Amino acid sequence: MRFLMMHRLDESVPEAWNPTPEFMAKMGRTIQDWTEKGVLITAEGVHPSEKGSLVRKARTEGVTVTDGPFTEAKEVIGGFALINAKDRTEAVELARQYIRLFEGIEIEVEVRQVVEFEDLPG
User: Fold this and answer.
1) Nearest Cα to 43, choosing from 31, 33, 32, 51?
2) 72-114: per-residue pLDDT in tens?
3) What is the pLDDT of residues 11-53, one digit of tens each?
């Protein structure tokens, strides 16, 4: 099964967006380990929302675009990892390992199973 892990950071905390060399080394070792084990499909960090846009479509309205930063959001997506796991329990355990890489930073990781073709009805 594939799972998406999205980590959210407080955009107002500079340390969350400026990784240290030690963090990069730990992340690199985890990426290598998970890749060799066949766990990691891909992982990426993203820029803060000031460099992003939000594209919205309401039910009856047209499409609107809002450029960042998104001041109404305290926490924003800081990156993601797409992983292979046998079930949600294993995916959550991998998220626990992943979140421990971010020492001294408040962070949350949302774990969501990816919908596969065979999961769709009929």
Assistant:
1) 31
2) 767 899 999 999 999 999 999 999 999 999 998 999 999 999 9
3) 888 888 899 999 999 999 999 999 999 999 999 999 988 899 9
CA atoms within 13 A on the CB side of 106: 8
Q: Where do we find the tokens 């596969």?
A: 116
Strands 75-84 and 107-113: unpaired
Which residue matches tokens 């001294």? 104
Distance in angstroms (rounded) separating the CA atoms of residues 20 and 114: 31
Per-position DSSP letters for the chain, written without gaps between them: -EEEEEEEEETT-HHHHS--HHHHHHHHHHHHHHHHTT-EEEEEE---GGG-EEEEE-SSS-EEEEESP-TT-SEEEEEEEEEE-SSHHHHHHHHHHHHTTSTTS-EEEEEEEPPPGGGS--
